C-alpha cells in the first residue's frame, strides 16, 4: 500500500507544476479593485452633491461664527449680502457710513445649489445673482452680525435645486451661533 508521501511525490516532482502569481498580476488585480471601489463610492453619492452641500453649509455656519467673534473683538459690524446663488461678507464703515465688501467677489454656490432665507419668520426675496447691479450701488446686508455679539434672527436654507434634493437649515435666534440641521421632512440623507 503506497503511503501518502509517495502519492504526492509525482505531482510535485517538476518545479513547473506549482506556480504562483507574479507581481504584475497582483498589481493588475489591485488596480481593477481600486477602480471598482471608486465607481461604487461615486455611484452611491458619498462623494456627490450631498457631501458638497453639507460642506457648504458647514462653511457658512463657520463663517458666521468667525464673524461673530471678530465683530466683538474688533468692535466692528459685519453683514452678509445674500443672493440665491452666492453670499458676500460686508463690513460697515462708520466714517463713510456705508457697507463695503470685505473681499472683492462673493462666494458662489455650486450651480446645482441655492439658498433662501427667512428673517423673523418672513421669507425674504433674494436677488438671482449679485451681477452688475451689486457693483453699481452700495450693497446692503440681509444678515447682521453686530459688535454686541448679536445676530439677525434668521433661518437659512441651503438646498439642491432638484425637487427631491437634500435640504439643510442654518438658524439663529439672534444670540446663538447657527448649526447645520438636515430637513427631516424632505431630501435624502448624505
UniProtKB/TrEMBL annotation:
Membrane topology: Single-pass membrane protein
Keywords recorded for this protein, A-Z: Cell inner membrane, Cell membrane, Membrane, Methylation, Transmembrane, Transmembrane helix
Protein localization: Cell inner membrane
Superkingdom: Bacteria
Annotated ranges, domain General secretion pathway GspH: 56-173
Matches recorded under PROSITE patterns: PROKAR_NTER_METHYL
Protein name: Type II secretion system protein H
Species name: Pseudomonas benzenivorans
Gene: gspH
